[in-house]
Design a protein that fits this description.
With 449 residues, the protein is an alpha/beta fold. The chain has 2 domains: 163 residues, Alpha-Beta Complex (Aspartate Aminotransferase, domain 1); 229 residues, Type I PLP-dependent aspartate aminotransferase-like (Major domain) (Aspartate Aminotransferase, domain 2, 3-Layer(aba) Sandwich). The chain has 14 helices and 14 strands. Helix 12 packs parallel to helix 14. The longest helix is centred in the C-terminal third of the chain and has 24 residues. The C terminus is likely disordered.
């Protein structure tokens, strides 16, 4: 019988997941379309590999095992799986069509709604993926400024301009790699020291888990403005979660451009670029950025319905309140168990993360152990609490009870000095997210003659 959300005696039976995986190995390279969903992030031999369906904050794998889900599809599920208001909007639009030969009115309606809720949305561009929106922002920033170089901080997708400065840069010409540079978050002095008159844009995630220092984002905007450089907020994670208008609303800092995806359509594929009218005007004639499916109407309908629900039900406030119960509850358990030297839950309440200190031992081994034990107890766990509107007080109370059951096992494993002996499957792989160098001052432009 499949596991349920309970303190199961056995680890879940995942034979059908494994069968699909073996089939995938024969026909797919890679086997996953999203790295964070792939088998390297879920311990082989214990965790499921394929999910079949979801409802609210619960998911069921292909073998029928049920879990509370805190991954939220790696961000897009802001309201909940199969959320009625959004699904009804999709069904209504499906009866009228998906993609058309001319523009659709929903493109206008969504853009007007975005102007109402996002502070810098003087103009709006709609596309399909976060990487597309980031690349469009970089291209229009280069066109507007007449400059080439880009400074970045965070993760910004798979396109050449960004991925060329990571360790996965095969296939990217050196000339492209040499135009993008990285800087350390919260280090304003490194940006000041490196900015020159050929930096078109500074793009960053307003926060990932670490909070910005007091005045950091505003000072970054001021420094960019003084240098004629555009500031871009990558709000894929912060948008519609920390506040309806994203981090720019929350911190009261209005960037020149901002990009959004994930939470805005509760799982449907859409991405948004908002910004200054004078910059965005270049898309009308000088900058080319189009896609056949940019006006796909099911995602537009879902996006409108999701944003209206986020607004009407004050969802960002809900995520903050319920996320605080989970984050603070975890840290209180850690205190009670005298494990504060080993682990903490960090981040903003809407999206927090369990961390392990170097003194605890190998972090990936500890994450693997925590994951296998939480999955056994019916929690699909990958280290994050990506809160959605369907997470209930009961879900949170259950999850904290599971943590209370699992943390002593983790403590015992740490103090045994041999974490691996407690593992039932393979150790997790490191998440590919970090860039491979920081604080690189741009190379001086050669002087002719």
């Amino acid at each position: 019988m499949p596991n349920t959300v309970s303190f199961n005696e056995q680890y879940p039976e995942i034979s059908l997941s494994e069968a699909y995986y073996q089939r995938a190995l024969n026909v797919q390279k890679p086997v996953t379309q999203t790295l964070a969903k792939g088998p390297g992030q879920f311990t082989k031999g214990v965790a499921p590999k394929y999910l079949q369906r979801g409802k609210g904050a619960r998911v069921w794998d292909v073998d029928g095992n049920e879990y509370i889900d805190y991954n939220s599809a790696i961000g897009p599920i802001s309201l909940g799986y199969a959320y009625p208001r959004v699904d009804e909007a999709i069904r209504r639009q499906l009866e009228e069509g998906i993609t058309f030969s001319l523009m659709h009115p929903l493109e206008v309606e969504l853009s007007e709604l975005l102007r109402e809720v996002i502070p810098n949305a003087e103009a709006v561009k709609i596309t399909k993926t976060g990487a597309d929106a980031c690349s469009a922002a970089i291209r229009v920033a280069r066109a507007f400024t007449g400059r080439d170089k880009v400074f970045c901080c965070g993760y910004h997708g798979w396109h050449d301009w960004y991925i060329g400065i990571t360790s996965r840069n095969a296939g990217i010409p050196t000339s492209i790699q040499d135009m993008t540079y990285t800087f350390e978050y919260n280090d304003i002095e490194s940006v000041k020291a490196a900015l020159d008159n050929d930096v078109a844009a500074v793009i960053l995630e307003p926060f990932i888990f670490e909070a910005p220092k007091e005045g950091y984002l505003q000072e970054l905007l001021d420094v960019c403005r003084a240098n004629g450089t555009l500031l871009i907020f990558d709000e894929m994670w912060t948008g519609f979660r920390i506040a309806l208008g994203g981090a720019q609303e929350y911190f009261k800092v209005k960037p020149d451009l901002a990009v959004y995806s994930k939470a805005c359509a509760n799982g449907m594929p859409i991405a948004l670029l908002t910004g200054r009218s004078d910059v965005m005007e270049l898309f009308n004639s000088e900058v080319f950025s189009y896609t056949t499916f940019g006006g796909e109407a099911l995602s537009l309908a879902a996006c409108v319905a999701t944003i209206e629900e986020l607004r009407d039900k004050q969802v960002p406030q809900y995520l903050d309140e319920k996320g605080a119960l989970l984050k603070d509850g975890y840290n209180e358990l850690v205190r009670q168990l005298e494990m504060e030297q080993y682990t903490h839950c960090i981040g903003y309440n809407c999206r927090s993360m369990v961390t392990f200190s170097p003194t605890a031992g190998n972090a990936l081994e500890l994450k693997t152990l925590m994951q296998q034990e939480m999955i056994k107890r019916g929690v699909l766990w990958a280290g994050f609490h990506n809160m959605c509107f369907s997470h209930t007080d009961e879900d949170i109370a259950y999850t904290l009870a599971a943590y209370a059951d699992v943390l002593p096992l983790v403590k015992a494993a740490i103090e045994s000095g041999n974490i691996q002996q407690h593992l039932k499957g393979e150790v997790l792989e490191a998440v590919f997210r970090k860039v491979n160098h920081y604080n690189i001052k741009p190379k001086p432009t050669p002087v002719a003659g």
